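User: Here's a chain of 329 residues. Predict its fold as tokens.
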Amino acid sequence: MRQRDRYLFIRILEACNADCFMCEFALSRDAFRFPLADFAGLLPEAREAGVRYVRFTGGEPLMHPDVVELVRAGTAAGMRMSLITNGALLPRMAGRLAEAGLAQVVVSVDGASAATHDVYRRSPGMFDSALRGLVAAAGFGVLPRVNTVVGPHNYTEIPRLQRVLTDAGVRQWELSALKLGRPIVYPDPAHVRAVCDPVYDAGPEALLVPLGKRFYGDTPEEQEDYFSRSRTPRASGPLCHVVDDVIYIDGKYGRAYACSCLPHRDDGHGPGGAALREGGALRLDTPDFAAHAGFFRERGPELCSGCSTTAAGYSDDVARLGTAAPWSY
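Assistant: Prediction complete.
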């Protein structure tokens, strides 16, 4: 019997209404939408596989015309439902999503004010909508979380953003290192540590403290890797435990991956996930998926170069404690 519940991530569309400079889906008008019928058909498989947490990703999930019904279907099947959004549509949809059973909302916020966040996202009004949406969702009983992409452009904003999010009642926060497919250069790594170490070292009773590892690494070795090679902190060896607990589905291409970071780094080296359909039917935990997960369980701590702070922290928690807190990934 499994000791830990699993997470199922589904990219339900690639379209997006934001123009974020770091994102491959910026202003995408891609027509794919993950069908409600496919999700309903997948839910029995997911329960059998030990899934209890589901998160919809995109693109911008709130652009999916059936997103409320997708949340409702998952909730009815006993899943804890979550989605990640830029927040533009959240203020007017928070009530319906909460009524359908949404348990957690993850909103992307990269600056401490509209003057910076809206510039990074190249989308006027996005900061105001994101904050109003987070407050509204929390008022309906939905767990509010923020993901922040951090790079040379905005790391000095992080202490101010910490206060803004704390004051807004945000309960969880991830700082994700900027990834652009090329080296990320910080002129003064010591200044990054001086600015951001206090953010991680703050007392959680007074300030919201980020989840997982520091985006620039917890150890001197990880920090050297990050600042000199742009290699984000990853699961400590010898094994990556994330792949035991995560299934990420790329709905458009019908592929399943053992970590939400892998499809974005799929460059042909090593197994590229597994087919979601087998004999025309939706299947999880196929032999191909098991082989893919096994490869990264053994080789991930050595090979992965685009790990997230929460994935790395989750794996290390499991290695140390045998478990990880709910929604910590």
